[in-house]
Amino acid sequence: MFTVYTSSLHDYAFDCVSHHLFEPYGSDSLRNATDEDIMKQVTLDDSLRNRLVAYYNPGLHKMMGSILSLFAKPRETPLAGNFVMEATAKTGAAQFTLLNRMQDKAHGLDHLDMAAECTDHMVAGIDTTGDALCFLMWEISQPRSFHVQRRLQEELRANPETPFDKLPYLDAVVSEGLRCFPAIPMSLPRLALAEMKTLLRDVYTRFTTIPDESMTEDDMQMSDLLISTQPKATKCYMKLLPLDADKV
Question: Is Thylakoid there in the keyword field (predicted)?
Fold first, then answer.
């Protein structure tokens, strides 16, 4: 039996997006503690309230900035900044990467422009995928949704070589998860990304997930319904039971 944590899903999301941007210079935060520190610095941000006030009411923010900073420190991400600056300074990125495309002289981008663009993509890709997977896997691990997990396992195990776009139930589960638990709670288009389907396939062809005994429904309430979503308790613990030994 294994336990999956919120940070593991965000590690996975960070590794996916960084390899999309920089392959072979992406992160390995699932196995490398130094890379995981970069992910945590970007993800564990409590300055949202401060930034919202600054954006929507700059006059009020100017008057109350010193008070607001006591409750929400401005985000500083030197580890992430250094990671991106170093990666974008390298050559030889894989052809499919964003870095490879931007280094084409026809685009006329300097190093700082490329780093800024890649940083935006990297930050956006961590919370969205990580949070969406967290809430989706939590929900299908509940008794009320266990029939969904069972049917998903049946489809995945019966079609081990089938492409993602030929697995209708997997697509439906991910799409419904994005509808019910949007990583960005706004009226923006939502896409069932391949990396989400990859992780769900790899987990549910081998395991059954159930909630960890330490978790409660209150822990999994969304903490922010404006720009991003995270579990209120900033944790999401689930147990992975090997299917062959599954007694649930």
Answer: no
DSSP readout, 217-240? TGGGSBS-SSS---BTTS---EEE
The C-alpha angle 29, 114, 105, rounded to 5 degrees, equals 130
Query: Does position 213 have pLDDT exceeding 80, yes or no?
Result: yes
The predicted pLDDT at position 36 comes to 93
Amino acid letter, 60: L
pLDDT higher at 215 or 167: 167
The class (CATH top level) of 2-245 is: mainly alpha
Dihedral sign (CA 120, 125, 131, 132): positive
Residue 143 has, within 13 A of its CA and on its CB side, a CA count of 2
Indicate the SS3 state at residue 77: coil
For residues 134 and 226, the model is more confident at: 134
Burial 125-139 (b: 16+ CB within 10 A, else e): bbbbbbbbbbbbbbb
Q: In this structure, which amino acid lies at residue 57?
A: N
Q: DSSP assignment of 146-196, as one string?
A: HHHHHHHHHHHHH-TT--GGG-HHHHHHHHHHHHHS-SS-SS------HHH
